[in-house]
Specification:
The chain is mostly helical. Helices cover 69% and strands 0% of the residues. The protein contains seven helices and no strands. The mean pLDDT is 92.
Length: 123
């Protein structure tokens, strides 16, 4: 492993660990540390990401039902993002599966799912 790759991995792991610590320790509902959603503030509509910070806090505390109620989309996006990152940065997932994760159709399905989710949660 090259020194550059080692530092990239070390910095990434440190950053993610720090984020986990902050989201575990501080409830986004009760502290001003976390930003409010600008879309929600301006339009009063929930964007696809609204509730994500509180949902991550709930997941880290093992409260999956509350997390689902806050933002169900996270339960689909988190595994998807992890798979894409694993494919791009490791050899755990063969590159031949790229078209199934980030090809034209998967991205279109993802985009349509996000739009439908946003409409559904605001109706």
């Amino acid at each position: 492993m090259s020194l550059k790759r080692f530092f990239f991995i070390a910095i990434t792991v440190t950053f993610i660990s720090g984020c986990f610590y902050i989201y575990y320790s501080y409830n986004p509902s009760n502290t001003a540390l976390f930003p409010k959603c600008p879309s929600k503030v301006v339009t009063s509509y929930d964007c696809p990401g609204c509730g994500s910070q509180r949902a991550i806090h709930a997941i880290l505390h093992g409260d999956f039902k509350t997390a689902w109620d806050l933002n169900a989309l996270l339960f689909f996006l988190i595994p998807y993002v992890i798979l894409v990152l694993l494919m791009e940065h490791t050899s755990m997932i063969p590159i031949k599966y790229r078209k199934y994760l980030i090809g034209k159709w998967p991205i279109l399905i993802l985009l349509i799912s996000i739009i439908v989710f946003t409409i559904y949660r605001n109706v």
